[in-house]
Records
---
Amino acid sequence: MKSLALVAFLFFGMTVFCFTSTFVSWEMPELEEYKGLLERLVGKPVTGTYRLIIASSTGEFMELSGLGYWFIAAAEDSTIFVQPLSLVPNVTQTVAHEMCHLFLRQYRLPYWLEEGIVCCVTGEWIGRKELILDRVESLDYSGMDFMTYRSYSFSCWVEVSKILRERTFGELVVALGEGVDEQVE
Ligand SMILES: [Zn+2]
């Protein structure tokens, strides 16, 4: 009975978690352009290595990330979760997007600002158009559906692009960051 339970457990474990785990670092040549843009924006060297978990199914991605099926990727602590690669249109850009989020977390910016800055670095909204949502800074993105979240991300990018023409990243960190890292200027 005991061995049967063990076999059942192993089988369960294997069928539920079939993800691939690897590491990604800002030193990777494919990320050089994104790294350069982010460094110019924050005014300091960008480094970091993160665990990358590639889910084997959308169900697994949802279970691992705690997000809806329509998200492509997510980042938490120093781990990035992505959907099965066949569902990710631009893997490098998607991973760079999540790595930017993880790097920027040290500044504890409001999410709309962080999302907008990330999209300025990846350039993913250039040449694309979505509905603009008013006052992105007051919106809660957590319960949004797919189309609303797209509009939200696009609106964050539009808003932050405007702000960055008038204010530096350092000024935004001082004005809007919560608990500024001492090394940040
Ligand atoms: Zn994002």
---
Amino acid sequence: MMKSLIVAAAGAATIFAVSVTAAPSAPTRPLAASTRANLEAAMHGEAYANLKYLRYADQAQAAGKPELAKLFRASANVEANEHFDREAQALRLGSSNNVNLEDAMKGEHYENVTMYVNFAKEAEAAGDKKVAQMFRQIAVDEGTHYAAYKAALAKLPRR
Ligand SMILES: [Fe+2]
Ligand SMILES: [Fe+2]
């Protein structure tokens, strides 16, 4: 499937035409581990770029630069809705609700009890006390997300 995406950015003079080929459906063999790892890494980068560019757009807008804001928003849209999306399709991200909830719980649990706890300790030791406090607060949020996913999983029919 081919679709053409025209992104107008930073005024009429700058127009990107991006030709997009969707990920092949039903590949005949599983992806290599290295390809899966690269897709995961690329998706992290695309997701980060999306949110970063949206912040940059807000800053440009606040600074009275609407054309620059438009450029950042247009790029952010491509990162999320073209690049991340195509990579997620190639990876076949997500499957059943049960598996998705288990995956989400795993990530939230790790952030809740390991990652943010360690980040907070390191920030505290480095003298960045406000950041340490923020990490501890976010750790609590992640625990809430974990609990909500766990409750949602308990309500699903068993596989
Ligand atoms: Fe990208
Ligand atoms: Fe979370």
